[in-house]
Amino acid sequence: MKIGFIGAGPVAQTIAKHALLVGHQVVLSNTRGPESLAGLVAELGSGATAGTAKEAAEQDLVVLAVKWWHVQAALFSVGDWRGRVLVDTTNRIASIEPLALGDITGRTSSEIVADLAPGAKVVKAFNTVPVSWIADFSASKRKTAFFVSGDDADAKKAVSNLIEEFGFYSLDLGSLAEGGRLQQTGGPLVGVNLTFNERFVLPTID
Q1: 56 CB-near residues (< 8 Å, 6+ apart)
Q2: Residue 124 contacts by C-beta under 8 Å, 6 or more apart in sequence?
Q3: How confident is the model at residue 147 (pLDDT cuts 50, 70, 90)?
Q4: Where are the alpha helices (DSSP H) in 22-152?
Q5: DSSP 3-state assignment of 12?
Q6: What pTM does this model have?
Q7: How far apart, in whole angstroms, are the C-alpha atoms of residue 197 and residue 177?
Q8: How far, in Å, CA of 16 to CA of 28, rounded?
Q9: For 120, phi and psi rounded to 5 degrees?
Q10: Rounded Cα gap, residues 114 and 121, in angstroms
């Protein structure tokens, strides 16, 4: 799979490293242009390249990894989102210093992302824990649980499969409106470090 990143900060870099380790290719982008990412691409190694936001958005799956106040500009820089799987990792924070939440009433943050990227198959994921919690890239890392929400079943399945391929665990919360509210900033599942250890499966009854 080829994964494009709108944004090249810690979130994008961490997810990209996990993707590269399992054989995917990544294209990173930022507002300063591909040349500014040469050092990062060299550090990430084989399978990593830099491009424009539009080039990143042409990949099999696109990860939105920018600060909330840059979301609109980032999505508008691509323009045509029809049919693309867009993973929303953003958190609706009005400011960092001092830390302040944005308005979390009304439509969820990912519904707003979907409004700004009409035609995209938006999946909310990778937003509930600090990236420092998943910075272990070894085979023995903790099986952190990630939540996914979205309105397109196939898109959610693709993202869930990717999470599991990274060595984590995926939990489907439902739609952007319902599940997205649980996992957006201010929701009850943000900052909760859940680790999947074992699962009890009920026997089927013929």
Answers
A1: 4, 5, 6, 27, 28, 29, 62
A2: 87, 88, 108, 109, 110, 147, 148, 149, 150, 176, 179, 180, 183, 184
A3: very high
A4: 38-44, 53-56, 71-76, 109-116
A5: helix
A6: 0.91
A7: 29
A8: 9
A9: -75, 150
A10: 8
Residue 105 contacts by C-beta under 8 Å, 6 or more apart in sequence? none
The CA-atom distances, in angstroms, between 133 and each of 28, 56, 141, 200 are 22, 26, 10, 26
Whole-angstrom CA distances from 198 to 17, 18, 99, 195 are: 26, 22, 36, 9
∠ CA 86-91-45, nearest 5°, is 60
Model pLDDT for residues 114-140, shown as the tens digit of each residue:
999 999 999 999 999 999 999 999 989
pLDDT of 198 > 80? The answer is no
- pLDDT bin (cut points 50, 70, 90) of residue 203 is confident
